[in-house]
Amino acid sequence: MTRLDFLCLLPFLIIAGAPVxxxxxxxxxxxxxxxxxxxxxxxxxxxxxxxxxxxxxPHSLDPLLIxxxxxxxxxxxxxxxxxxxxxxxxxxLKNHTGEREEYFIILFVAVLGASVLVVAEHFISFFxxxxxxxxxxxxxxxxxxxxxxxxxxxxxxxxIASLATAFLLxxxxxxxxxxxxxxxxxxxxxxxxxxxxxxxxxxxxxxxxAGIGFKLAVVPFHMWTPDIYQGAPVPVTAFVATIxxxxxxxxxxxxxxxxxxxxxxxxxxxxxxxxxxxxxTGNLLALRQTNMKRLLAYSSIAHMGYLLITLLAGTDxxxxxxxxxxxxxMITTLGAFAVISVLSGQERDADQPEDLKGLFWSNPWIxxxxxxxxxxxxxxxxxxxxxxxxxxxxxxxxxxxxxLAFSLIINSVISLYYYLRIIKTMFTVxxxxxxxxxxxxxxxxxxxxxxxxxxxxxxxxxxxxFINKFxxxx
Amino acid sequence: MILQHLILILLAGGxxxxxxxxxxxxxxxxxxxxxxxxxxxxxxxxxINQGEYGQKQWMEEFTALWIPQFGxxxxxxxxxxxxxxxxxxxxxxxxxxxxxxKEITSNTGFFHFNLLWILAGITGVFLSLDLFLFYFFxxxxxxxxxxxxxxxxHENRIYASYKFFIFTQASGLLMFLAILxxxxxxxxxTGNYTFNYQQLLGTTISPAMEWLLMAGFLAAFxxxxxxVPFHNWLPDAHTEAPTAGSLILAALxxxxxxxxxxxxxxxxxxxxxxxxxPVGMILGVTGILYGAKLTYAQTDLKRLVAYTSxxxxxxxxxxxxxxxxxxYQGVVMQMIVHAISTGxxxxxxxxxxxxxxxxDLNRMGGLWEQMPALGSMGLLFSMASLGLPGLGNFIAEFxxxxxxxxxxxxxxxxxxxxxxxxxxxxxxxxxxxxxxxKESEYVTNDxxxxxxxxxxxxxxxxxxxxxxxxxxxxxxxxxxxxxIGAKENQGRSEPGRQSGAVIYIExxxxxxxxxxx
Lengths: 474, 517
Fold this sequence. Notes:
By secondary structure, chain A is mainly α. Helix content of chain A is 76%, strand content 1%. Chain A contains 21 helices and two strands.
C-alpha cells in the first residue's frame, strides 16, 4: 500500500476509526451527548475528507476497490444522509432510558458497510460491504428491545438477509466456477451481445440478482420490508430506506453496467418483469395501508421498481437519471421519516393516522414538510420527485422502454391516492391540538430537507451540473 | 419583459397572504386583492398598448435558461389569445377573492395562498411556449385546487377532491408522455432536443406516431374541458368546491383545456387533427346535447350549473374542429362569456347557499319577493346561458355555429338543437328558484353592496361582449390567423387586424354561392 492508497481510503479510515474512539470514550464515561457530538464530528470529517480525495480520483485499489468520482459522489450522499440521520437519532433517543451510546457505534459500522459497497468492484468487497451493512442493521433494527415488534423485525431481517446472502454467495460461486474471475470488469466479454451467455453464468447472475433484489426489496423479494419498516425505530427505518438501499443501488448500477446486463435478453426480461411487478405490487398494496411506516415501505417497493428502469436503459443518461433519482428519493424519504421521528414519543412511533390528524392546523411547519415530501414521492411539480421522475421517464423512452415508462405513469396515478390520503388526514380537523417542541437542530434538518426537495424541483440544474462533472464510473 | 412578473407577483403574493393570515384575515384578503388587481392592471396596460406591437406574432416574450442540458427553457410569450385569457384570469381572480370575503372564515391565509397559486398556475399555462414549462404549470394548479376543494368544500368534499385530482393528474401524465414522445421524435429528426413550442411546430412525424402523440395531448385537454365521456369529475368538483373554487374551476380551469386544444393540440398535429375532426365534432355535439339533458335532471343548484358547463364546452370542441377563423372567434368568445355567465351563476348559487343553507332546488322557490335584485341577476344570467341576443353568449354561439356550418351543416344543425335545450333548463332554474310557491318562510336580505358590485361588474361585461364584441374579436384575430395559418401550413401574408367576423361577412355572398352550387 502506498501513501496515496491510504490517502484515498481516508473517509473509510475515519468511519472505521470512529467506533473505536467512541468505544474508548464510553469506557471513560457514558454520556450520550458527548457520543453524539463525536459522531457528528466524525461524519462531517468523513464528508470533508471527500474533497481531499476528489482530486486523486479515479484511483484503483486493485483488485477490491475503485475510488472513482461515481463512488465519491455516492459517498458524499451517504455521509450527508448519515449526518442528518444522526441528528434525528439523537432527538429521537434522548428521552429513552437504557444504553444509547452503542447506537452510534453500530451506526458507524453500518455506514462503513454502505461506503464499501459504493466503491466495490470485486465480489469480495461487494460481499464484505453488504455483510457489514446487514449485520449492523440487525442490531439497529432491534435496538429498542423493550418495544413491541422490534425483536420480531430484527429476527425477520436476520433470517431473510441471511437467505439473500446465501443466494448471493451461491451466485458468485457459480460465476467464479465458470470464469475464474471475481472482479466485475473481467466478466465483460462473457456477457457481450455477440458472445452469448452460458446457462451457468446466467444462473449465477440470476442468483446475484435475487440477492440484490432482497436488499432493494423489489418484488418478489419484498416481503420483509413492511415489517422491518414498522418494527424498527424511525431513524433506523430512515437508514434502511435511504442509505442502505441507495448504496445497494449504486453497486447494482456499477455491476449491471460493467457487465452490460441490459444487452442480455434473459436478464433484460427478468429485470423488466421485476420492475413492473414492483411498481404495481408496491402501489396496490400501499392503497389499503393505514400505518404510515408500512405505507412508506410499500411505496419504497414501487420506487425501487421505477428506479430499475435506469438499469434497463443502459445509457449514460440512465446512470445520471439514477443518481438524480436516488438523491431526490433519499432527501424526500428522509423528509417523511424526519417528520415521523419528530412526532414520535417515547412509547411508540407516530405511524398511526391519528398522529397526523389536524397536523396542518396545529403544526403547519411540520405538516408542510411532510406534505412537500409526499407530493415529491407522488411526483408533483415544484418538488424533486417530479424532476427525478421526468429524468427517469426520459432516459427510459430514449432507450425505447415505452412499456416501462407507461406503467410508471399508471403507477404514479395509483400512488397519488394514498399520498393524498395522508395529506387529507393532516388537514382534517382534530379535536385535540398537540404541539411538538422542535429542537434547533431538528428544525435545521427539516429546513434542509424541505429546501432540498423544493430547490431540486425548480432548479434541478444545481444537481445535474454537479452530476455531469462526475463522469460515470470507469 | 413583464410576463414573468405576472406569475411571480402571484406566487409572492400568495406566500405573503399566507403569512399575513396568521395575524389578520382582513390583511390577507386585502393583500390578495391588491396582488391580483396589480396583475389585472398590468395586463390592461398591455391591452391598451397592443397597437404598438404592430404585426409581430408575440406582443411580449420572455426567455431564460432553465435546464439547458435537456433543452428546457423558460419561454413565455403573449399574443392576443393569451392576453384575453389573462385578462379573464385576473378578472375572475378578483371576483373569487371578493366572493370569499364572507364565505371563508377558517384558515383564510392558507385559502388565499391556494387561490393565488392556482391563478399563478393558470397564468403560466396561458403564457408558456415551452412544453415542459407548460406541463409544469398545468400540474402546478392542481395541488392548490385540491386543497381548496378538500378543505373548504361542502359535505362530500374529500371524494370530490380525490376525483378531481386523480382524473386531471392521470390525463396530464398521458400528455406528459406525449410531450416526451414529441421531444424525442423532433430530436431524432433534427438532432436538436428541445421542448420549445415554435421549434416543435413543424416536426415531421409518421402518421401513426402523430395519432398517438395527439391522443396524449387530447387526453389532458378533453378531460379538463371536459368532453362527454370524460366529464365525470366535473359535477362533483364543481358542486363540492367553495364558491371561489367553483368559480375558478368553471371560469378558468376549463378554459385551460380549450386553450390547450387551440394552442397545442391542433397546431402541433395538423394532419391527425384534421382526421380527428369528425370525431371531435361528434364529441362536441354529444356534449352539448347530453350535457343539456343532464342539466335538466339536476335538483342540486350547483350541480345543475356544473352540467351547463359540460353543454357549453361542447360548443368549444365543435368550434375547434371546424377549423376556420369564424368558428375560432366563436370559441374564444365562448371561453370568455362562459366564464362570466357560468361564473355568475355559481356566485348566485353561493349567495343563495349563504342565505338558505341549501342547494336543493326543491327547497327553494318564490325568492324573488324578498330578493328582487338577486332574482333579476339570476334571470339575466340564465338568459345569457340560453343565448339570448344582446348578451355575450349569443355572439359566441352564433359565431361557432356559423363557423361550423361552413364545415359541416349536419353538426351545426344538431348543435343548434342545444340552444333549445338550454332554453328549457335555464327557464327551469329561474322558475324553480325565484318564482313559484314558497317552500318555507325565509328571512333573508337582498344583495349587499359587495355582492352587488361583483354582480354589477359581471352584468356590464356580459352586456358589453354581447353588444360590442369587436374589441375581443379584434384582439384575438391575429392570433387565430396564426394558428389557422400554422394548421393549413400556408404562409398567410399579413393577417391584418381585421376581425374574423368582418372578414366572414364580407365574403359571405361568395360562400353562399358556393353552397347553392
